[in-house]
Amino acid sequence: MKNKYLLLCLAFLLMSVILIYNVASTVNASPEWQIPTINIPTVTGTATGPMVTVRPSQNEPSVNVRSGPNRLYSKVGVLLVGQMVEAVGISPGGEWIQILYPGAPGGKAWVFSLYLTDPGPLPVLEPPASPTPLYTATIDPTLAAQFVVTEQPTRLPTFTEAAPIVIPTFESQAPNQVAGGVPMGLVIVVLGIIGILLALFSIFYVR
């Protein structure tokens, strides 16, 4: 029993020595991994051209930076209001200014001149090639033919002359005659006589 206990103690001691040796060997740093203690110089560039500042804007806090002097060119970044950049040149029309912009292809980009302060005289630079449109508009002739409407000629209505208007005519009669040509005076006399006879008849009949 004692021998067994002694063997366990020796095994535990041996494992402890091996573990301590491995830890000590990993702590030693290799000379290649040590960080140098000397100062590394930083390469800084000095602006050689005129500096321009982004003008303050009431609507936008930044302005777009494009790959060419036109809104059709792609946007490569933005400049914040108050930011200063170095101007390189100006477009032929004087509406765009080329600046040094590390994020753009070739390290140069364009900004609309109204968004920047006056840089003074700058060399006129030729703009880059016109941007290629992202897609080309094509028209399917079969689809377009479905929307082509051909107007059929319409026949104009035929004018038909209206029937002539028949105006009735009335025979004029003398003011002193009634229908049939009987004088009006004779009719009055006859009616007067009949009235007198009826009056006399009524008087005698009443008595």
Structural overview:
- The protein is an alpha+beta fold and 207 residues long.
- It has a domain of 65 residues: Roll (SH3 type barrels).
- The protein is 27% helix and 15% strand.
- It has three helices and six strands, in the order αββββββαα.
- β5 and β6 form a beta hairpin.
- The radius of gyration is 60 Å and the shape is elongated.
Largest sheet: 4 strands, antiparallel
By CATH reckoning, the class of the domain at 51-115 would read Mainly Beta
Distance between the termini: 190 Å
In total, how many beta strands? 6
Strands side by side in the biggest sheet: 1-4-5-6
Taking all Cα atoms into account, the compactness measure Rg is: 60 Å
Number of helical segments with 4 or more residues: 3
Q: Strand-and-helix sequence, N→C?
A: HEEEEEEHH
Portion of residues in beta strands equals 5-15%
Shape estimate: elongated
Q: Any idea what the CATH superfamily of the domain at 51-115 is called?
A: SH3 Domains
Structural classification:
alpha+beta
| Average pLDDT for all residues | 75
What would the CATH topology of the domain at 51-115 be? Answer: SH3 type barrels
CATH architecture of the domain at 51-115, by name, is Roll
